[in-house]
Amino acid sequence: xxxxxxxxxxxxxxxxxxxxxxxxxxxxxxxxxxxxxxxxxxxxxxxxxxxxxxxxxxxxxxxxxxxxxxxxxxxxxxxxxxxxxxxxxxxxxxxxxxxxxxxxxxxxxxxxxxxxxxxxxxxxxxxxxxxxxxxxxxxxxxxxxxxxxxxxxxxxxxxxxxxxxxxxxxxxxxxxxxxxxxxxxxxxxxxxxxxxxxxxxxxxxxxxxxxxxxxxxxxxxxxxxxxxxxxxxxxxxxxxxxxxx
Length: 245
Ligand SMILES: NC(=O)c1ccc[n+]([C@@H]2O[C@H](COP(=O)([O-])OP(=O)(O)OC[C@H]3O[C@@H](n4cnc5c(N)ncnc54)[C@H](OP(=O)(O)O)[C@@H]3O)[C@@H](O)[C@H]2O)c1
Description:
Elements: E1 7-10, H1 16-28, E2 32-37, H2 44-47, E3 54-58, H3 64-73, E4 79-82, H4 97-125, E5 130-134, H5 147-167, E6 173-177, H6 197-210, E7 214-215, H7 219-227, H8 232-240
Parallel strand pairs: 1-2, 1-4, 2-3, 4-5, 5-6, 6-7
Helix pairs in contact: 1-6, 3-4, 4-5
Bound molecules: NADP nicotinamide-adenine-dinucleotide phosphate.
NADP nicotinamide-adenine-dinucleotide phosphate (NAP) binds next to helix 1 and helix 4.
């Protein structure tokens, strides 16, 4: 699929990696980009990148009724980028760890599932298209400093595989993106080198164009996936020292 002329929909587009997706899509020649955020007020800077091509949309990915209404209006979408996500640190034994885990699952897993259920028929009507899910290296190995986030991203990895199989007959390409640390608000406290959000976005657009199913956009991600060729247990031990303080 050529990015030139596509119609894309990006969740969590007001900042971080989502905003970088909008920038990269504009640069690559997308004809229309629906930039979604819970509050459209937070999208002013994003729309200013290319006001003739960027359409601001109010969307909370935990609200299936709102998602359904938005999918009916955005009926020309050919690429859906499920970027919105949350991370609550603190380990599994803090006072609010169960509520944190529910919030992460509701947003990262169920939010993405709602989006895909609403947009799969739209993509089918438009010829198949692509779905991009923002996973993480934490999808394949639990990082205890954000353990319940890792669990939600592992669930999303499994969902990505299932959706890929279920939507193959309608010609929808399903891509998983597995970043390591990226320089956004979410990774503020992570004591590792971070790549710029635009690198994640550019690597993803290249994968869409080349028909690649999995994206490892940075050195940490590439190292993890190389290490996974070795026994999985060794990788688990590599992260086991990253405990909550
Ligand atoms: N940063 C990293 O190191 C890293 C690594 C691997 C994967 N990722 C993944 O990349 C994606 C983007 O993360 P980021 O680093 O750009 O984080 P970020 O700067 O914290 O941005 C998160 C985005 O998600 C939106 N969001 C949160 N809850 C939402 C909801 N219920 N409905 C709609 N939007 C919601 C936020 O909107 P508000 O402004 O309204 O809160 C914001 O736009 C996430 O899925 C994350 O898990 C990030």
